[in-house]
């Protein structure tokens, strides 16, 4: 199976589209776009049987249409005796009668994740950029901004230099030593509508803003020579002990990196100062004398030694500020994709996209939108060239889904040589009779049925009528040539496979799952206007043996068949195993009623695992269809069977060369099984409920390689965890998914896709195969040069995904993206996207731990980022400012975000993190999109007590540091997996009463898994915030109440990622110092 199939030439297919009028470019102008395909395409698409996102019935009412439990039934089993029939009424699942939270269940296809960060405009703490900006008059000639290299320094981050002789001089120094986050050294390209030098900053006149100096003016200093010439020597003070702790205490740098000041010989001891401290100080000026034996009195104010200085966190790049600025600058206008190489708004900005020829950033985001023309440049910069692709991403309702194009039996038009699909960048020539491929330059005849005349500009006159000529994203209906065995696929099947061992039964899990399935089966994915889902369902339960169920509609009661020979798994029944839900409704309901009773008294604690997957696989094979297995599993599979595992957890391996084995599967059995699953289109979603180690690294292999998902609920307790689990299950069952998918990324000459990250399987070097691909799954693709690129032609990507829809229709989804190419490094750095870069780097590192010691991986990450920043510093920043830390505007958050990756549980586990947690997170991150990695590594922290109860907006986020927390406030922190509500010890009693319904701080229970429903504005507001945030994430997050100074606070502090972590992770300030040192080493 491959997307690279020979185009089939078929009979001509009607060219003219009479009556088509609506699809015109101008129509985009400001009017809202319909959320479903416009009917005008019907003219040549033919009918589009419901190509739209499946719309489930409104609301989620589990009892809807559910038959009443009938008369007693019994299960017939051929090999096992059954528990007494269950007749009595089951209690309703505690949550299923309630309406779905926020939007989780009622919008299964997930119009959820795009409206993030709708918070206000204020930030906690005063960012440095909010300080008044005044350029000291005398400083002008000496400012880096006025140096020949047009670096405009954004003075958000102030450099801390040795104190000069006066406030004025001090200011000069401070200005000159800005940790510049510089805008690029040339104006942004015209026409993009996006100046990289952000308009939200104070006017960038080339002069940095002097910092506010909290310390008193320093009298009596003498600094010879003009400030600029002395800058390189004064650039930084010795590392303050507090801020440098934990950093490499290597020898001081010797040698300066810039040209020595011509007018001003280096003073003894200056080199000693090159230690990477910067930013403005808090409190009094430090005593330099103590630090510099060579210049004991240099810069030292008289008087007692002041407290150790530290870098002011307000003076270093703030993620919150960057997010806010982007929201303010780019959130109001739609992002129109008509221009090559445009950098989209950040993932944290809520914006609309209008497709005018390039794929929406919801489908593809790149690390850079301007690629170096040569591989030498790319190597020099060390900026990875990668695209993060989410082929089936959910769009907000205001945006148009990709149109479905049907070329009939002839199939899509493709390049003869490289097989690229028709797209807006193909060039029609010779009056429209041939087209030249934009990827490989080969010329291909236009099939007669596809011929159209060109207008005077060389554009086909039907340009705007055809999505594949005018849009970045669209779909083709695939012909039989694109189908396995040249046969159109059958609709897929879902098989529910429930662990019924002792733990699963005892915890109430089995009953919960069965109750939920009774209603959830009415919400299987369906296409458009289809009355019911085409998906068939089947049921298996298991412990050491497997139980298959015949739920054929003609049966009065379900029948059970037990397979106890798990060594050679087979499916004991074909007819009646996979059924239509509506047809077999009564039998299924009866089965789901009885399963919990049948195993209620089980003593079986052992489970098998691989045979369960094998059983599902065999069932799909027998039915000749693709599908998904939903496996609910509780323990390490130690029962005698293929794929049996042993407990090999060993935390002592952490920080040793053998640590990598903790991430590797303990047997290759599952890799081979995964391969078989992919070949059949059998995707596995795994729900884990462990009470101890169950080897996620091994159990996760099949879900991971088949494009499935893993969910983990450690120490599952019905009361506290069922809501979260049910929400995840509902969303997982209902969400949009494609099966039997193959993705190929084609590129224009000069670059090619060389590496892939995500949940998939590859049997060759180009095709990414996924048994299933859902709307949340993301594939990161890295590109390398294989030739020179040209600035004129730019670079093109085309991602083609061949898949089977949930109704069994074979389709191709195409996404195109055009990028700019540059011969100047500054252009590269001006068009990077740090969030995407971090997504790539995290995935790269998380794969690295499979083969290399974790420390090696961490060091490589630091080194690569230091090289990226050093290259910028050397080639794009002002030469007069050597020794400063100057960050590219687009990458000024690279250090803080990189530090978060380095401190993450996979790369630097805290004592509370289990081996399974690490394996779980490693696999999870590998499929995350950019928005998910962004909030995962730098969690969102909101002051709930600052929320405006009368508005819909969220309170403004604050930075992730303990010092931003006030003990009189309540905060929410979320990272996509957990939501913490942190309560300060001095919170007003009234607020506690309103939110928790108790009269004092001490009475707040941190066993709460939801906030109590209280009828007051504050409680309503907070719950609506939590619901809103839950709705934006692809998983239901666990709610954890944390009281200040309580023991759970340790867990919470782990997520305050700007602070030093308990596991030894550096604070942001310290890490920035460290990066500065690394960069200087590279430059020397
Ligand atoms: Zn081609």
TrEMBL record:
Residues 412-450 form the Zinc finger Sec23/Sec24-type domain. Residues 10-31, 283-298 have a biased composition (Low complexity). GO terms for cellular component: COPII vesicle coat; cytosol; endoplasmic reticulum exit site; endoplasmic reticulum membrane. Pfam families: Gelsolin, Sec23_BS, Sec23_helical, Sec23_trunk, zf-Sec23_Sec24. One of its GO terms (molecular function) is zinc ion binding. It is a peripheral membrane protein. Residues 489-733 form the Sec23/Sec24 trunk domain. GO terms for biological process: COPII-coated vesicle cargo loading; intracellular protein transport. Gene3D superfamilies: beta-sandwich domain of Sec23/24, Sec23/Sec24 helical domain, Severin, von Willebrand factor, type A domain, Zn-finger domain of Sec23/24. Residues 954-1025 form the Gelsolin-like domain. It is found in: Cytoplasm, Cytosol; Cytoplasmic vesicle, COPII-coated vesicle membrane; Endoplasmic reticulum membrane. Residues 1-167, 190-341 are annotated as: Disordered. Residues 71-83, 149-159 have a biased composition (Polar residues). Residues 738-821 form the Sec23/Sec24 beta-sandwich domain. It comes from the Eukaryota. Residues 208-230, 258-268, 299-308 have a biased composition (Pro residues). Keywords: Cytoplasm, Cytoplasmic vesicle, Endoplasmic reticulum, ER-Golgi transport, Membrane, Metal-binding, Phosphoprotein, Protein transport, Transport, Zinc. Belongs to the SEC23/SEC24 family. SEC24 subfamily. This is SEC24 homolog C, COPII coat complex component. It comes from Cyanistes caeruleus (Eurasian blue tit).
């Amino acid at each position: 199976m491959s997307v690279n199939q020979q185009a089939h030439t078929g009979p001509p297919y009607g060219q003219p589209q009479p009556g088509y009028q609506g699809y015109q470019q101008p129509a985009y102008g400001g009017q809202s776009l319909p959320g479903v395909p416009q009917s005008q395409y019907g003219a040549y698409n033919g009918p589009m049987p419901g190509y739209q996102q499946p719309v489930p019935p409104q609301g989620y009412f589990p009892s809807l249409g559910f038959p009443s439990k009938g008369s007693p039934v019994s299960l017939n089993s051929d090999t096992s005796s059954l528990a007494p029939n269950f007749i009595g009424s089951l209690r309703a699942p505690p949550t299923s009668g309630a309406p779905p939270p926020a939007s989780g269940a009622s919008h299964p296809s997930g119009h959820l994740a795009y409206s993030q960060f709708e918070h206000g405009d204020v930030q906690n703490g005063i960012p440095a950029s909010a300080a008044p900006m005044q350029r000291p008059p005398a400083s002008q000639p000496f400012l880096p901004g006025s140096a020949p290299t047009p670096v405009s320094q954004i003075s958000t981050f102030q450099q801390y230099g040795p104190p000069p002789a006066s406030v004025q001089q001090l200011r000069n120094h401070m200005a000159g030593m800005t940790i510049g986050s510089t805008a690029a050294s040339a104006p942004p390209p015209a026409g993009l509508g996006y100046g990289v030098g952000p308009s939200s900053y104070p006017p960038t006149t080339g002069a940095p803003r002097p910092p506010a100096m909290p310390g008193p003016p320093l009298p009596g200093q003498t600094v010879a020579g003009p400030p600029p010439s002395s800058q390189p020597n004064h650039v930084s003070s010795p590392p303050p002990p507090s801020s440098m702790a934990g950093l490499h205490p290597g020898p001081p740098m010797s040698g300066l990196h810039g040209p020595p000041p011509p007018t001003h010989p280096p003073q003894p001891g200056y080199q000693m100062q090159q230690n990477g401290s910067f930013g403005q100080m808090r409190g009094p000026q430090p005593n330099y004398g103590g630090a510099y034996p060579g210049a004991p009195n240099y810069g030292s104010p008289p008087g007692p030694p002041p407290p150790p200085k530290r870098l002011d966190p307000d003076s270093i790049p703030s993620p919150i500020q960057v997010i806010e600025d982007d929201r303010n600058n780019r959130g109001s206008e739609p992002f129109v994709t008509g221009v090559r190489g445009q950098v989209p708004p950040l993932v944290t900005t809520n914006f609309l996209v209008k497709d005018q020829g390039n794929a929406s950033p919801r489908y593809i985001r790149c690390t850079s939108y301007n690629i170096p023309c040569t591989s030498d440049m790319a190597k020099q910069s060390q900026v990875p060239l990668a695209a993060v692709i989410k082929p089936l991403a959910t769009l907000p309702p205001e945006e148009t889904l990709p149109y479905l194009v049907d070329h009939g039996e002839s199939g899509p038009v493709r390049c003869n040589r490289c097989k690229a699909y028709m797209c807006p960048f193909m060039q029609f020539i010779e009056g429209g009779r041939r087209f030249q491929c934009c990827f490989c330059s080969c010329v291909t005849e236009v099939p007669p049925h596809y011929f159209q005349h060109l207008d005077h500009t060389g554009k086909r006159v039907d340009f705007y009528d055809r999505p594949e000529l005018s849009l970045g994203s669209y779909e083709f209906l695939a012909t039989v040539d694109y189908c396995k065995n040249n046969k159109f696929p059958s609709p897929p099947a879902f098989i529910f496979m429930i662990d019924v061992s002792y733990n699963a039964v005892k915890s109430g899990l089995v009953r919960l799952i069965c109750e939920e399935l009774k209603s959830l089966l009415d919400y299987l994915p369906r296409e458009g206007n289809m009355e019911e889902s085409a998906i068939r369902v089947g049921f298996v339960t298991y412990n050491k043996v497997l139980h298959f169920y015949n739920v054929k509609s003609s049966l009065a009661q379900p029948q059970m068949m037990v397979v106890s020979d798990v060594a050679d798994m087979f499916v004991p029944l074909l007819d009646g195993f996979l059924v239509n839900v509506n047809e077999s409704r009564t039998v299924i309901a009866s089965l789901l009623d009885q399963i919990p009773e049948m195993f209620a008294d089980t003593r079986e604690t052992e489970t098998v695992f691989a045979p369960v997957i094998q059983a599902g696989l065999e069932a799909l094979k027998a039915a000749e269809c693709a599908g998904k297995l939903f496996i609910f599993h509780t323990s390490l599979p130690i029962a005698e069977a293929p794929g049996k595992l042993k407990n090999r957890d060993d935390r002592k391996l952490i920080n040793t060369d053998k640590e990598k084995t903790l991430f590797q599967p303990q047997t290759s059995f599952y890799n081979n099984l995964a391969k078989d699953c992919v070949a059949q289109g059998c995707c596995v979603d795994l729900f884990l409920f462990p009470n101890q180690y169950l080897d996620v690294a091994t159990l996760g292999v099949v879900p991971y390689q088949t494009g499935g998902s893993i969910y983990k609920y450690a120490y599952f307790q019905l009361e506290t965890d069922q809501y979260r689990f049910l929400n995840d299950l509902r969303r997982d069952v209902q969400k949009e998914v494609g099966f039997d998918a193959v993705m190929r990324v084609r590129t224009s000459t000069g670059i090619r896709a060389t590496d892939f990250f995500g949940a998939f399987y590859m049997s060759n070097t180009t095709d990414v195969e996924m048994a299933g691909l859902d709307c949340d799954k993301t594939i990161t693709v890295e590109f390398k040069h294989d030739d020179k690129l040209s600035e004129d032609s730019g670079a093109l990507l085309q991602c083609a995904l061949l898949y089977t829809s949930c109704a069994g229709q074979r389709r191709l989804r195409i996404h195109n993206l055009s990028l700019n190419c540059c011969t100047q490094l500054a252009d590269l750095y001006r068009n990077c996207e740090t969030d995407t870069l971090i997504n790539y780097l995290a995935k790269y590192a998380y794969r690295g731990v499979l083969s290399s010691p974790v420390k090696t991986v961490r060091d490589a990450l630091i080194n690569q980022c230091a090289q990226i920043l050093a290259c910028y510093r050397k080639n794009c920043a002002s030469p007069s400012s050597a020794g400063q830390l100057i960050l590219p505007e687009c990458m000024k958050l690279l250090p803080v975000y990189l530090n978060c990756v380095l401190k993450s549980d996979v790369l630097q586990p805290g004592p509370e993190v289990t081996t399974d947690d690490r394996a779980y997170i490693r696999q999870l991150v590998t499929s995350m999109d950019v928005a998910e990695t962004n909030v995962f590594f730098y969690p969102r922290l909101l002051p709930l007590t600052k929320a405006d109860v009368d508005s819909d907006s969220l309170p403004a986020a604050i930075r992730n540091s303990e010092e931003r927390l006030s003990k009189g406030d309540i905060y929410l922190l979320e990272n996509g997996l957990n939501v913490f509500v942190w309560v300060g010890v001095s919170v007003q009693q009234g607020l506690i009463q309103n939110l928790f319904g108790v009269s004092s701080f001490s009475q707040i229970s941190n066993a709460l898994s939801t906030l109590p429903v209280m009828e007051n504005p504050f409680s309503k507001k907070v719950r609506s915030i939590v619901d809103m945030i839950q709705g934006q994430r692809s998983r239901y997050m666990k709610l954890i109440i944390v009281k200040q100074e309580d023991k759970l606070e340790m867990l919470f502090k782990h997520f305050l990622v700007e602070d030093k972590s308990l596991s030894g992770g550096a604070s942001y300030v310290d890490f920035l110092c460290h990066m500065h040192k690394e960069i200087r080493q590279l430059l020397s």
